[in-house]
Every structure is written in C-alpha cells, then in structure tokens.
Specification:
The structure is a homodimer.
Chain A: H1 5-18, H2 22-33, H3 37-46, E1 54-60, H4 66-79, E2 84-89, H5 98-106, E3 116-121, H6 130-143, E4 148-154, H7 158-164, E5 169-174, H8 179-187, E6 195-198, H9 206-223, E7 233-235, H10 244-258, H11 264-296, H12 301-309, H13 315-326
Parallel strand pairs in A: 1-4, 1-5, 2-3, 2-4, 5-6, 6-7
C-alpha cells in the first residue's frame, strides 16, 4: 500500500507545493474546487506545514476599492521581499472562468511575479461552503510558504463575517457618504475589524465618516471585555497610493500586537479559526456523505422534493427520517 | 402519548398561529431562533397550511434603501386589503435586541397595524444557518395567512443568493453611481433578479445605471435558456414614494407570469425552493445532531480544537474520524 501509485502522486504533489511550485498548487486548488477526495489527502499532508503566514482579511461592500488596496499593499510587501498569496472570495460570480479572468485584469502588474500567487474563489453551486474552501486555500498558500495572505471578501453578509474569522487581522473598508453602510458596520461587523479604512477619501464627507467610525469604535470598546487594541481608522486613496504606507504599518502593528509576549489575543484568534474550520468542514462533509450514501442506494432527492412541493410531507419530517436512517 | 401535555401545547400553538395570533407566532419565531426541538414539531404541523403566500425578496447592499421600498409597498398592499409579513434578514446584527429595536424604528407606521407582521432575523452565533431560519419563518408567516411576504436581505453574498431562492419573485435594488456594484450584479446575482430597481433615482447617473443594467440583462437573456420573462428596470425614490406604483405593478405582473397557464416557471421556482429548504435543513440538523451526540458522550470540541492549533492533527482527519464514528 505504501507504494501504490496514488500515494506516490500525492507525495509528489505535496513536495512540489511545499517547494512553492505554481502548477502543482494551481492543480490542488482546482481539485479543492471540484471537491475531489484526493484533495483532502493532500490537505492533510500539508497541514503540519501551516501556521507561518500572516493572514489579513479585507471586507466591505462591492465598489469600495478593496482590490486596489490589496494590489497596492502587494507592491509594498514585494518591495520588502515578502511573498504574497491573494484570495479573492467572490460569492457573486458563478460564471465559470469569470473569476479567473477577473484576476488577470485586476492584478496585471503582479501576474508575472512568481512571488505573488493570486486565486479567486466563487461559489460554484456545489454543496461545499465558501468559508470552508477559503480555509482550505489559506492552508495551501500558507504551506507553500507565502509570508502574507491577503483575503478579499465581497459584502457584509454572514459568510463574510465567518470568512473574516479565517484571518488574523481584518481590515474593514468603506467609502465616504455611505451613511447606511456605517449603520451596517455599526450593527454587526464592528467587532471583527482590527483596522478601519475609509477609501476614496478625496470624496466629500470623508472626515465625517471617520468621526462616525471613531464614535462607534469607542462605543464598542466600552462594551468590550478587551480594550487592549484600539482599531485605527485610516483614510486612503487606493488608486493614488495615498495612505498605503500607513495601512501597511497598521497591519504590521496589529501582527506585532497579536504575537506580543502576552499571547492571550493570539490564542483567542487561533481558537476561533480552528473552531470555525472544524465546524465548516464537519457541516460540509456530513451533508456530502449523507447525500452520497443515499445516492449509492439509488435514493434521489427528487422524490423528496416532489413530496415537499405537493405538501405530501414536510422538510422537517423528511430530514429527521434521513438522519435516523444514516446515523448509528 | 396522544394526550400528553406537550402535544396539547403544540396543538394549541398551531391553532393559534393558523388563526393569525400574534403572540403565539412571536413565541414560535423565538423558539425557532433558539433552535428548540418543540419548534420543529410545530413547523411540521404548520407545513400543510403553507403555499398560499406570494414571497417577494429584496436584496442589495446596505444603504440602497430596501427598507424604505418595503415600507412603501406595505402601505400599498394594506390599501388593497392584503395582509403583509415582513422578514428583515440582517446577518450583520449579532447584538441581541438590536434587530427588533431596528424594526420598531424603521416600521413605526405599520407597527400598530395587525395586518402587518414584522420580524428581523440576525445570526446569533448558533450553528443554525440564516437561510434555514428564513425558510422556517416564511413557512410560519405563510401558514398564519399573510397574503404577501416581503423578505429583505442585506448584501450580495452567498447567503443572500440562497435566501433569494426562498422567494417567488426577487427584486434587486441598487442606487446610481455604484459602478462596481453593477459589476457585482453583473458577475453573479443578475440571474436571480425578477425585477431591477434603481432607487434614489434623483441622484446623478441614474439613467446611466439603468442603461448598464439593461445591457447586462440583454446579455444575460441571450445566454439564458428561458427568455419568457424580461426583467423590468424601474427608477424609484423610496422616501418620496416615486415609482412605488410601478414597482407594485411589476411584482404583481411577475406573480401572474409565474402562475400563468404554462406552469413551467412556477414549477422551477417551487423545485428550487423545496430543494434549498431540504438541503439547508439537512446540513444544519446533521451538524447539530453530530455535535449533540458527541457532547452526550462527554466529548468536547475543545480537545479537537487544541489538537488543530498545536498541529497534532488536522481538521480534515478529525472530521473524517468524527463522521466514521457516528455514521452507520
């Protein structure tokens, strides 16, 4: 068994990825996308080599300029000699190929730089959740030795909050004049922000947005158990490169804060990440396994779907029946 | 067993909800939120009474004015004598009570109208997915006899696309001058829109946004297998009530289209809804059941989380072990 061709293939891929090979990495990421069982075996072998990268998440509504900031920061990291992995999580892009084309256009100037690995993730209509794939792909880029992994997520939904938990440092990006946007930040994702950015700060109302954010952060800190990190609020103009040095510095400071002598903060971040990754993988795998088992017995979901539509049964009873059949 | 106190309680609640009782409904929705097993039993009994309401989803970024449109439409429906259920799905609001307070402020003028039932859903850090709760709550409002159910979702993420599949008719809302927003719509959620709205149409660039959307829709229809419904694009000013009559009419037309003689479209919508509801419930219940069984045996997740953090094991192997222990 130890010399089966499958194992040899897997070992080779693992070695190649650990050595930073781009083709092997791209192939694994494709296999993760396609949810191939071989991908899981490789992920298992890569996992011991993870834990070195600094994972930085960027979240905000479409149009606030996250990609531009990520692009500018990538240039800064490359100037320092650091290697960069970029994951653009775009759940709104189901058209196959579209996401990859988007990368090429957006990140043209880094595309030929072998120190930068860019990959888009989009939901592909499978049962596999986006949060779970994001964790998997971060692990791959981490294992291949990227020093910094920048994860860009579109929107302010539940997925984005969960994806933010896959990062060590989270940058919340907004633009001036989105009053209700600030309300949304206020309502919920405030607590996940390590750094706040008001991009397109040349627009009217930038100072006001900064002020609003400052008030909200102060309010949040007053209700927070831990106030050892005061999230900075930065004004940037991504396209002109204004404020990028400050953002770069703020990200480094947050990393230093996490890895400082008192490791309580880092432990908390690591615990959240590990927990989320475990829960997401369990949820996905449980569903996939249950559906595969039914299919293997020739039971299709279509019969159940028809029963629900015809009101002959209800989804609640059907799910209970399915689980009681499969579980010990 | 048929005369146990539990059953009597459940029957009473069911009868009360079917009769439109607000307190009983509010209680059930709270129990769904708290993921109480009794809620599932009531949902089972309510399910045969569902299928009569027209479910209309509203999706778009924070700040585009979805709540105002929903508020204005509610007034129109009430003038017609129709009863309305409103679900505001706000995954960015984890603060307990915050969402409900938001309702009161936003919907003041409908709050005392017994023909309108308003409820916010926010993620509460449980394992239960928001999509699943949304389906459950739609079923409750449907069973209690609401004629129209308006479901408002924040953002353009994966959850929002899934939640959109819980509606018969989906209204995509944007505002002028969000170029990248249109890009996001282009990239993915185009195909879920039955009706497109450019709100705050008094702002500069409204006509241009309409034009962009029209081009995208035409492009989409050319690639679509079915072009029997041409999604209208409406300009509205929610706060002034401009364009509300047209939106109200467009929603009614879409319903008439779905329920027309050739029921192919409706069947497709019903199939998607039933399938999503089944998959979401299965995913949630499988996870919950697996975790409960482990807990009952005194196995905590913390041990596994520590192993992942220490790189003593990896999430992939741990999930496989957990599943092989529990499945037959």
């Amino acid at each position: 068994m130890s010399h089966s061709p499958k194992k040899t293939y897997a070992m080779t891929i693992v070695d190649l990825i650990l050595a930073g090979d781009l083709r092997a990495t791209a192939r694994l990421l494709r296999d993760i996308d396609d949810e191939l069982p071989t991908a899981r075996n490789i992920l298992k072998k890569l996992y011991p080599h993870t834990g070195k990268a600094h994972v930085v998440g960027f979240t905000g509504s479409p149009g606030v300029g996250k990609s531009t900031l990520v692009d500018q920061l990538t240039t800064r990291y490359r100037q320092e000699g650091l290697t960069v992995g970029i994951l653009a999580v775009d759940p709104t892009s189901p058209f196959s190929g579209g996401a990859i084309l988007g990368d090429r256009i957006r990140m043209q100037r880094h595309f030929l730089d072998s120190g930068v690995f860019i990959r888009s993730l989009a939901t592909r209509g499978h049962f596999g959740g986006l949060t779970r794939s994001t964790f998997d792909m971060i692990n791959v880029l981490d294992a291949m030795g990227k020093d910094v992994i920048l994860v860009e997520t579109v929107g302010v939904g539940q997925d984005e909050v969960e994806i933010a938990h896959s990062a060590h440092t989270t940058v919340l990006v907004t633009v001036p004049g989105m009053g209700d946007e600030v309300q949304a930040i206020k309502a919920g994702i405030m607590e996940i922000g390590s750094i706040f950015v008001v991009n397109k700060a040349d627009r009217e109302g930038s100072r006001g947005t900064v002020r609003e954010l400052r008030n909200l952060i102060e309010l949040g800190l007053r209700h927070s158990e831990d106030a050892s990190w005061l999230p900075p609020i930065l004004e940037t103009e991504g396209v002109k490169g204004r404020g990028i040095d400050e953002l770069h510095l703020a990200i480094r400071r947050h990393k230093e804060y996490l890895f400082a002598n008192d490791r309580g903060q880092l432990d908390e971040v690591l615990r959240k990440r590990a927990r989320n990754q475990l829960i997401e993988a369990l949820k996905d795998e449980a569903l996939k396994t249950l559906l595969q088992r039914r299919q293997a017995r020739g039971l299709s979901l279509d019969v159940l779907i028809r029963k629900i539509i015809a009101h002959e049964s209800d989804p609640y009873s059907l799910v209970q029946e399915m689980l009681s059949e499969e579980l010990q």
